[in-house]
Write a structure and sequence with these properties.
The complex is a heterodimer of chains A (280) and B (262).
Chain A: E1 5-6, E2 12-13, H1 23-40, H2 52-56, H3 63-66, H4 79-109, H5 118-132, H6 136-147, H7 151-175, H8 180-187, H9 192-231, H10 234-244, H11 250-279
Antiparallel strand pairs in A: 1-2
Chain B: H1 2-16, H2 27-40, H3 45-79, H4 86-100, H5 104-115, H6 119-143, H7 147-155, H8 160-199, H9 202-211, H10 215-245, H11 255-260
Helix pairs in contact in B: 2-10, 3-6, 3-8, 3-9, 3-10, 4-6, 5-6, 5-8, 6-8, 7-8, 8-9, 8-10, 9-10
Classes of the chains: A mainly alpha (280), B mainly alpha (262).
Chain lengths: 280, 262
């Protein structure tokens, strides 16, 4: 569509054509919509997405939801639940610290700069990918099956989960560092480990510390489901009230625990985010 | 000083956590035994069930992410400080923070009474759980765009909608699409976790097989989940890089940015 405009010099100028959307972008959009349609319908490859349940049950006669406003906030004062809360924090601390320590070498080895040989890089990267593809609940299931129920499988599970999280983030950071100090180290004849220690690690330390805190935050959240399948801490108390508690006020207690948990996590999150901002 | 505090916390945790440390020495041996059991008893007949369950998890994750995006993207425009007044963006952000504080496993407990132990419950949970994060990241993308095109649009008399369409969207959309895809990658893992609570998908298969010690099917399910997750990550990662960098381009790194807002 062109409109002729007369400029002062008397020549006509055409309005520029509207830019066409990129074919790649369009392709992605089409695939996205197709995938959404396929997965929404109620057939073999779909989930049969429906919101009927909300409409049907909205009358509020549902005992689980009705218990929410009546949440039993006294859970905080029960010794066993307090112990479970502290266990959760303890599990998160131990697994985060241990995971952070182990993640550093693995992360360094999975980068081009940090790996002494190419095969080390490839292997470390492969291990990292596999570890990262395990959802946290899978680690918990595996360790509960191996050592039984309690806080120990929780610690082990979240240890591996932390490694997964921290390794990737740290490796990405290493890929982005300034190579100047590395060249200086090479020029002065350092060995590989020395080079890492003096030129790489100091640069990534703030980010690395912030990732450790981040892993701690994630571990706190993950502890819920880890506990549900047997890993100790607040999750196991939740599961107990959900399934094994004989009293009629099950859901009041469950929601009471939930409220306490959300508040504690919220506070710890705020503190952690503030700490992380000051690090990076 | 900081390390002293950290050491003190660690010591407290080690001492006070009620873990059966004695079993730690048994752990590697038992682990190896279980893995051996899992991988030597696999059979091809289990693969079909696991693949279907994995697809269900992927479907839940995709729909949940799309659901979140539908609400989160408009909301992000309401939270971007360069587009709306301060009080509004602040208010909307606090809502996001609140949503983000609720772990999905707890959210699903509130959704199951309505939707039952069905994939729909998983989808809705993932959707609600993702809105906060996606919205926050999108609003940061929007705040980070170049104001040049916005001024240009305003100077030729564009109204709000036209300004959005021609000055804001073309800059923000590729990055927004990229972070939505990243959320999808994460939601696949969350979907497996929710499955362990009964809504369906590979999580349900994994949990029931491991807890009932059906080692063969458990091994198959484990391999399926690992391979599927890695595949989705690789494809999604490639699409995301291409979206942000363009056909020629140099990769921009907004990954570290993404971490902050989890």
């Amino acid at each position: 569509m062109t409109t002729a405009l007369r400029s002062a010099a008397g020549r006509s100028a055409a309005r520029p054509r509207k830019p066409r959307p990129s074919p790649f972008g369009l392709g992605v959009g089409v695939v996205a919509i197709a995938l959404t349609v396929v997965t929404a319908f109620d057939w073999r490859f779909g989930t049969g997405l429906t919101f009927r349940g909300f409409i049907d049950n909205f009358g509020g006669r549902n005992s689980v939801i009705a218990a929410i406003p009546r949440a039993d906030l006294d859970q905080m004062f029960s010794a066993r639940d307090r112990g479970a809360f502290l266990d959760t924090v303890g599990i998160a601390v131990i697994s985060s610290v241990a995971g952070t320590l182990v993640a550093l070498p693995l992360a360094l080895w999975s980068t081009r700069l940090g790996a002494p040989y190419r095969w080390v890089e490839v292997t470390a990267r492969g291990i990292g990918s596999v570890i990262r593809s395990f959802p946290d609940v899978l680690w918990a299931l595996i360790f509960v099956a191996a050592v039984g129920v309690g806080a120990l499988p929780g610690v082990l599970a979240l240890f591996f989960f932390s490694i997964a999280v921290i390794t990737k983030l740290t490796a990405d950071t290493v890929d982005g560092i300034d190579t100047g100090p590395l060249e200086a180290a090479d020029a002065s004849g350092s060995g590989h480990t020395q080079k890492l220690r003096t030129a790489v690690v100091p640069q990534i330390l703030p980010a690395y510390a912030s990732f450790a805190l981040y892993a701690f935050e994630l571990n706190l959240r993950a502890s819920v489901v880890v506990g549900i399948v047997g890993g100790g801490g607040i999750g196991s108390r939740l599961e107990f009230f959900r399934n094994n508690y004989p009293g009629a006020d099950r859901w009041e207690k469950v929601w009471g625990l939930v409220v306490m948990f959300v508040i504690v996590v919220f506070i710890i999150d705020r503190v952690s985010i503030a700490l992380r901002r000051r690090l990076v | 000083m900081a390390t002293a505090v950290l050491a003190a916390i660690l010591v407290w945790a080690l001492v006070s956590t009620d873990a059966n440390w004695g079993r730690l020495t048994d752990a590697p041996g038992r682990l190896v035994t279980n893995f051996r059991l899992m991988f030597t008893r696999m059979s091809w007949s289990d693969v079909g069930r696991s693949m279907e369950a994995m697809w269900e998890s992927v479907a839940m994750a995709w729909l949940g992410t799309m659901l979140a995006a539908v609400f989160a993207i408009p909301l992000a425009f309401a939270a971007a400080e360069n587009l709306v007044p301060r009080w509004m963006s602040f208010g909307v952000r606090q809502v996001f923070n609140l949503l983000r504080a609720i772990p999905e496993v707890i959210l699903v407990l509130a959704i199951i009474p309505f939707l039952g132990l069905t994939p729909s419950a998983g989808v809705v949970t993932l959707g609600i759980g993702s809105i906060g994060t996606v919205s926050k990241l999108c609003s940061e993308v929007i705040e980070g765009i170049d104001s040049g095109p916005i001024e240009a649009a305003d100077s030729v008399g564009a109204n709000s909608l036209q300004r959005l369409r021609w000055a804001v969207a073309p800059q923000a959309l590729p990055e927004i699409a990229s972070l939505v895809l990243y959320r999808f990658e994460i939601n696949i893992r969350v979907s497996a976790v929710l499955g362990a609570l009964g809504v369906g998908g590979i999580g349900t298969v994994l949990r029931s097989n491991i807890e009932f010690k059906n080692w063969g099917p458990a091994g198959v399910a484990l391999i399926v989940v690992v391979l599927a997750t890695i595949t989705v990550d690789v494809i999604s990662g490639a699409v995301r890089r291409r979206l942000v960098a363009g056909p020629t381009g140099t990769p921009a790194t907004r990954e570290a940015h993404v971490v902050e807002a989890f």
